Amino acid sequence: MTELAAKLESLPVRSAALDPATLTGSMLDFRDVTGDHLINRLDDFYEWQDRRREHSLWFMGRSTEAGPRRRVTAYDDAGRRMDGINFASQDYLSLSGHPAIKAAAVDAIEEYGVHSAGSPALVGNTSVSLALERRIAEFVGAEHVSLFPTGWAAGYGVVKGLVRPSDHILMDRLSHACLQEGARAATPNIRLFGHNDVADLRAQLESVRSHDTRNGIMIVTEALFSMDSDTPDIAAMQDLAKEFRATLVVDVAHDLGCLGLDGRGHIGLQGMIGKVDLVMGSFSKTFASNGGFVATNHRKVKEYLRYYSSPNTFSNALSPIQAAVVLRAFEIVDSPEGASLRQQTMTNVQLLRGRLSQAGFETYGAPSPIVCVKIGNEGLARLTSRWLQANGLVANLVEFPGVAKGKARLRMQVMSNHTDQDISDAVARVAAAHRYAKAEITEVADASD
User: Fold this and answer.
1) 305 contacts 157 by C-beta, under 8 angstroms
2) Burial class of residue 25 in the structure, from the number of CB atoms within 10 Å of its CB (0-12 exposed, 13-18 middle, 19+ buried)
3) Phi, psi of 220, deg, nearest 5
4) Which residues have C-beta within 8 Å of that of residue 439, sequence separation ≥ 6?
5) Per-residue pLDDT tens for 244-281?
6) Do residues 292 and 280 make contact, with C-beta atoms less than 8 angstroms apart?
7) In this model, does residue 13 exceed pLDDT 80?
């Protein structure tokens, strides 16, 4: 038996022959389904998904036994078990298991119970959520903060809450889905500017203002893009917003708390603390909880979002447990311990990127806890991920339409408590998986000729 055949035999589930259809197609193929029965018209999607599941090529919907640890027991959505190193969780400073974070949750249960039991527009806030608003405002240099039940809700809510159908949105073409869906729900007047392209943004602002001086313009970007680990010139975009009477929204979900000596992320690194019109963020990457926020220097924005941003107005407020956890996380982030955790995370990031490069892999963007490894072809990426899953590495596959077609990648997410050995073992597994996958896809191609 060849080495390749032996490795194939070790996979958790393998049919007699790999179905080539499992290596093609994308989620986009099934987004705009048609048919007169809303349930029956999902058949094609489910058949495609289930073929991939049968061949251990469906990598979504996985679960872990004990949360985001550096080593986990995980299961795919067919219940197949995998044990290995975890580079799939978003817990950049490893705060989800921090003793002080767990103690904050327990203390909040004792003091407040487990449920907010109301909207922020009514009586859903507690003293701990108000304290969290003040802490975030201080941290990002804003006067006022609105809390949201999720980061997705904050992104969608700030766009949909402020923009009206006659207004305009100019958005980086790689902006997160929550921002894009908020835009589509708010106005038909959406323009996508080139990724991090300030010159293109200027040209589009000039075009809009040349024929519309009466309506508003929202500029939308991210401080750290999660698929490419790159960042825009925030100061230049804020200058353009001022020049063209526009409002800039910057999503800091992936960098706030984990980047920069003081943890202020790219708005801090670029000297923009307190200078961005609207800062929107999430707690789920660094701050160990669901939830999100919008920070502003204008009380009127906070009040308007409270009553006109549906994800805020018509959702329950953050639970007191979540608010207490995030508040304690901000205290750790903004302390010498937080600085030490950031340094350890960045050390791990540099080690991982360096060793991947030595192994012949290209990584995207600049050093951050998001390390995206270029694979390319979707079929090759799926087979690589199957090898990883079978051989002790949990990492996320990102493919079209999440990224451009032919630019599939592994998204590895680094935590502060990853060890040197974890990183070495992970790189060895990626290299072996990629090697085996290339051989396997060649066999599939030869068999189909």
Assistant:
1) yes
2) middle
3) -125, 130
4) 4
5) 999 999 999 999 999 999 999 999 999 999 999 999 99
6) yes
7) no
